[in-house]
# Entry
Amino acid sequence: FIYLNAKHKPWWLANIRTTYGKDTDFSGPDSYANVIPDTELRIKWLPNLGNMKLMFIQTPGNIQFLEFVPGEMLNVRLKDDMEEVYGFSYWKEGCSPAFAGRKFTSLAALKANNYQYQEIFLNKPATTLAADATTANADNGIWFVTSDNTAAKAITDITKAKKGVVYIIECGGTTNATTIAKADKFSSLTAAWTPVAVGDYIMVTLDSTSKFVDLERCVNGVRSINTALQPNVPGAR
# Structure
């Protein structure tokens, strides 16, 4: 299966009509609205992705929802309210693949292997910031890649950021590389972020005071996790 953003389905249908004819019939489960033309690869349309241009391919059943306590989703309670009866349950859940593929120490090693052991393939739904940019706009996604700059620059804000959403700033250029100071909207960081290599990143989210805190970061290819905020993340324990 290939998973695509349901918000972009009109683009998909318009492009199918352009390529295969204006009168293409999209009815039925095997139409080009649900299957990649000339393949057996089926499409799953995902809701609630905003405008993110994320797409990924996986074997059906590999990615599954996980219950915290077995059966808690089915532990349904009933409550009557006048002439209506509500059915509800409480649960904690997660989402995890059974197989993601062999772990490699670097992207170069993964490419050298020609992705032979990969079980999940996905694009990089990132937005490239313009040279000398000092802000990122959350309307454009959650992942931002900086560019080479004409002078030293620092990110001072992620505008329109929402609480509960994690954002990534990644170094895409080392010429006057974009940094983040421990000040203003980023004053709650554990430390300033100064990348030294392409691919270095910092992962942040808003706290209760609407300031950004860092969940993890990578500098010179070395990943470090903020264990105070993420004690249970694999690699933090």
Q: What stands out?
A: The CA atoms of residues 215 and 226 lie 5 Å apart.
